[in-house]
Amino acid sequence: MSEVRYTDQHEWIRLDGEEATVGITKYAAESLGDVVFVELPASGKTVAAGGEAAVVESVKAASDIYAPVGGMVTGANSVLEKEPSKVNEDPEGAGWFFKMKLSDKAEFAKLMDATAYGKFVESL
Amino acid sequence: MTIASEILRRTPLHALHLELGGKMVPFAGYEMPVQYPAGILKEHLHTRDSCGLFDVSHMGQAFLAGDTAQLERITPADVAGLKEGMQRYGLLLTEAGTIKDDFMFSRLAGEADLYLVVNADTKEGDFAYIAESLKGAATLTTKPDRALLALQGPLAEEVLERHSPGISQLTFMKVVRATIAGAPAIVSRTGYTGEDGFEISLEGGDVERVARQLLNESEVLPIGLGARDSLRLEAGLCLYGHDIDETRNPAEGNLMWSVGKRRKEAKDFPGAAKTLGGTPAILRVGIRPEGRAPAREGTEITDKQGRVIGKITSGGFGPSLNAPVAMGYVESQFAVDGTAVDLLVRGKAMPAVIAPMPFVPHRYRRPQK
Hints:
The complex is a heterodimer. By secondary structure, chain A is of the alpha+beta class. Chain A has helices at residues 26-32, 79-82, 86-89, 105-109, 114-122; strands at residues 2-6, 11-16, 19-24, 35-39, 46-47, 52-58, 62-66, 71-76, 98-102.
């Protein structure tokens, strides 16, 4: 049974049991434009909530991707190295960035759910 | 998302841009489309493959009347020697001999006045500077109501010929008054992409109709400023305010080709002694990062021992190369093609190589010999 939450930095995080998958939302992918390069975190890297976890480069600019919650990176989507365009094609599915183990589940529960995120985007 | 707090100007094609789904952003005090729904990558590739239409009406257009050769007071280009029917690239220089702007000047057949096109960001300053510097000798009349389109790509000729029979006679850097889709225009075979193409100056009242007619052609897509930038970067063309500015002279900017031969001999332009005084300490070069990560403006360039030797002034991803490219300045001893350097990206040294420009070969339509 998986749950998805969202940050105000337009990252999504899907929790499946003990492991979470992180990516950027459709809104973020559209704002970025064509993604040409992704720098993914190494397995074993410790991240803090709101800390820099990855970098995504579009034709025009580089953007930092932040860890929605604190924990440890357990893997990254190496497909993005050869096909950064996957981020634009399927940002909330096959265009995921990395997986991680959470250090504090409470941080996850505090994030916005889909409805709240939808309202947030509308307010922008 | 930022809310534009400045009052932005609009070109006559503003409504059309919105209709086409243009993503509007502030640029040089104007609201301009950075891309359309196709996106920067597709727009860039389409221009090199087929034909793209750009709205560049934000640029400054003007006519210079009187003793136009006096423009040589503030540019090292050969103005007096420009032949009828030709356009030329020049640098506008400050009194110190540094670059105030780059611009195009044209001598239309049978006309005494020179036709000038300058950059959008600097146009007010440029026009004031030209008028002041040539006071008593020549008069500048700005044309704020004129619009400017660029039609670029291998199919541009074919497309434009349909709306202006005979226009394909123009070869690279030739300029002429012509009728485009029934509208009086000044057309030059030039551009900012490295591809064959045309720049079309029109009355503001005609540009929307002409743009729509050109966009109606199956080969043509509207192209935004995002792709305009990636195209010109691949073509090794400078962006004023980034690759050249008032801290650089023509020698440092590697633009001595734009200094007229007669001018080099006469040394009669601002800062000539320094500009002509031997190899400059720094030089503008092309840089190819070795990996896939782009290195952007401001990135420090170091030698292999980590000593900073320069800086990137333009950098990004080159869609036609499927690789990152950059332009910047390095100490002249490093300005040799093939020299290995490092780029400090996000605190890490990334290997790169000094590379010749253009990164993508130019395909200008030169006259047949």
